[in-house]
Amino acid sequence: MFASALAISQQTIMYIVIGVVLVLMIALSIIPQRKRKKQQEQMMNSLTVGTKIMTIGRMVGKIAQVNADNTLVVNVGTDDNPTLIVIDRQAVGLVLEAVAAPAPAAPEAPAAEETTETTETVEVVEEVVEETTEE
Fold first, then answer.
1. Residues contacting 86, CB < 8 A, separation 6+
2. CATH of domain 48-97
3. 52-75 burial, b for 16+ CB within 10 Å, e for fewer?
4. In what side-by-side order are the strands of the sheet with 84-88?
5. pLDDT score recorded for residue 46
């Protein structure tokens, strides 16, 4: 009886160890894959005009235009003699030199002038309204 109980517990332990190893293998293959996918999406979202890229076919060029239909116009020639090709956004393999995204424009001083013009217009309109109500 003792021998059969020992055999059952060894089999149970073996199944538990196999299950733990399978779970670890699956987890260790999924986590890096998600990380790579997140980095790829971030790279795709950062593509702007002027960014130097390498395609998955190992062609190097600068982005000349970003189209709304997920295509890019890439200059693979020189600046003096451009050679433009159209590629799919997913064909970008590596960003070699990223271009900083343009900063949002800060409100300038003329905006303050517009508010004074608006208040002057409001004052003139109020004067006209007062004159018409007096008559």
1. 71, 72, 73, 74
2. 2.30.30.30
3. bbebeeeeebbbbeeeeeeebebb
4. 84-88, 71-75, 60-66, 52-55, 92-97
5. 85
pLDDT recorded at residue 85: 93
Domains of the chain: which residue ranges? Answer: 1-45, 48-97
Q: Which of 25, 134, 47 is nearest to 95 (CA)?
A: 47
Burial degree of 89 (CB within 10 A; 0-12, 13-18, 19+): middle
Residue with tokens 């600046």: 79
Q: 61-82, pLDDT tens digit by residue?
A: 999 999 989 899 999 998 899 9
What is the rounded CA–CA span in Å between residue 65 and residue 51?
Answer: 10
Q: What CA–CA distance (Å, rounded) separates 123 from 132?
A: 14
* Coil vs helix vs strand at 62: strand
